[in-house]
Specification:
- With 274 residues, the chain is mainly α.
- Helices cover 76% and strands 0% of the residues.
- It has one domain: MetI-like fold (Orthogonal Bundle), CATH 1.10.3720.
- It has helices spanning 4-33, 37-42, 54-61, 65-96, 102-111, 121-130, 137-145, 149-161, 164-172, 177-188, 190-205, 209-214, 223-231, 234-258, 260-271.
- Helix 1 packs across helix 14 and helix 13 (223-231) runs antiparallel to helix 14 (234-258).
- The chain is globular, with a radius of gyration of 23 Å.
- Its main location: membrane.
């Protein structure tokens, strides 16, 4: 008896329900962002008298939204640059060269996919404190940039699939290892690198736990911590909590959906051996 069509139908149904619920939550949150605090509390599910942008103005003027936004953007860009540089060089070494304990090194990075940063936060916190990076955005960047497991895995598989003729041709032309990597191998990996950037961007942008532990100064905090500040007194700041959630969530989701095709293409290039 073939159960594959039935299982596929059940999986598709579950995914459709999950997607519909997620879109409903996002739509409802966006809808509420255009309503006043009085309407949110007194007529939560009703139709508003008028849609207005007062909450957005309040977020930018009173809540200093741009400061949190630029903090998040800086951490995102710096972390991505470090991740791409380190993971591409590590993956190139593992994928193109033969050495002792090669499989053990790759296994080390694969094991990293199983353990979140929360499991080691105490020694990480102590280490960051001892090197003087506590309450510094660089401390957050270093911790987040250490998540190399997924990028290394995808790029290693990609570099392993590249024909050796490309490497040998570069060598015949007199290129050294660094020149071969930067001018030949790295550009060829651009689809995988682009996918990694998009996937990691969503994770880093929405990162809450690490900035919460590492950052104490309000001037250095990120967007998720700004939203937490509003939700600590939700009845008083419910309007700011709604509009802040929209401004922090919707743009990165739009970016992800716009480039979802590129993401799938890059993951397929780096995750399937041919």
């Amino acid at each position: 008896m073939n159960l594959k069509p039935k299982r596929s139908y059940i999986s598709s149904t579950i995914l459709w329900f999950y997607s519909a619920f997620t879109l409903f939550v996002l739509g409802y949150m966006t809808y509420q962002a255009f309503r006043s605090k009085k309407e949110l509390l007194s007529n939560t599910f009703g139709w508003p008298d008028v849609f207005n942008f007062a909450n957005f103005k309040k977020l930018f003027v009173q809540a200093d939204f741009l400061r949190y936004f630029f903090n998040s953007a800086w951490i995102l860009v710096a972390t991505l640059v470090i991740i791409i540089l380190l993971s591409s060089m590590v993956a190139y070494g593992i994928g193109k060269f033969k050495f002792r304990f090669k499989n053990t090194v790759l296994l080390y990075f694969l094991i990293g996919l199983m353990f979140p940063v929360q499991l080691g936060i105490v020694p990480i916190f102590l280490l960051i404190r001892d090197v003087g990076l506590l309450n510094s955005q660089w401390g957050v960047i270093i911790v987040l940039a250490s998540g190399l497991s997924m990028p290394v895995f995808l790029l290693t598989t990609f570099f392993e699939k590249l024909p050796n003729d490309l490497y040998e041709s570069a060598k015949i032309d007199g290129a050294g290892e660094w020149t071969t990597f930067m001018r030949v191998m790295f550009p060829l990996a651009s689809p995988v690198i682009f996918s990694i950037c998009i996937i990691m961007s969503v994770q880093i942008w929405n990162q809450f736990f690490v900035p919460l532990i590492m950052l104490q100064s309000e001037a250095k905090k990120t967007l998720p911590l700004m939203i937490m500040k509003f939700t600590n007194n939700l009845m008083y700041n419910i309007d700011l909590a709604m509009v802040g959630s929209v401004m922090a969530t919707v743009p990165i989701l739009i970016l992800f959906f716009l480039f979802s095709g590129k993401v799938l293409e890059g993951v397929a290039s780096g995750g399937v051996k041919g």
